[in-house]
Amino acid sequence: xxxxxxxxxxxxxxxxxxxxxxxxxxxxxxxxxxxxxxxxxxxxxxxxxxxxxxxxxxxxxxxxxxxxxxxxxxxxxxxxxxxxxxxxxxxxxxxxxxxxxxxxxxxxxxxxxxxxxxxxxxxxxxxxxxxxxxxxxxxxxxxxxxxxxxxxxxxxxxxxxxxxxxxxxxxxxxxxxxxxxxxxxxxxxxxxxxxxxxx
Length: 199
Hints:
- By secondary structure, this protein is of the alpha+beta class.
- It has helices spanning 11-20, 31-34, 48-63, 97-107, 174-180, 182-198, and strands at residues 3-6, 27-30, 66-76, 82-83, 117-127, 133-144, 160-162, 167-168.
- Strands 1, 2, 3, 4, 5, 6, 7 and 8 form an eight-stranded mixed β-sheet that branches.
- Helix 5 packs across helix 6 (182-198).
């Protein structure tokens, strides 16, 4: 069975991808499995596409495996689209998910409910060791909650609220999240790309 490198050190992402990419005919391996340091790549791109492509190409060359990397972020309309590509680094190096959530909520303290619209975006890059890259996009819309709710998921999930469900992303079972999330939507396209690479 060919190996597919999921180039992330985020355990939450790795868990989700192992489900989202199940039954494709690949053995999923991680940077840790291969002993590759995550610090090899610095995300200096000015877009999700650039960052995902940089990671996928670099790790595909290093591992000589088909490699999937993503870049994703939370875009808040009242903050002019921030934190966007800086979502993971919003509160600085070494900050926890809780630190980032609290900082974002503090910045939105005075924003009324009807102006708290936001979206999660995800771009997946799939690269071959030969340098071929395909991009897949996913997006989902919601509101920024007034306080964190739920213990599932990671990142900004506890404050990303789906009005139609009355729940935050962190209150959804993984199976439901994997039908609705930005990552799930990008992964649907990625499955097709990966299938074609097996032929």
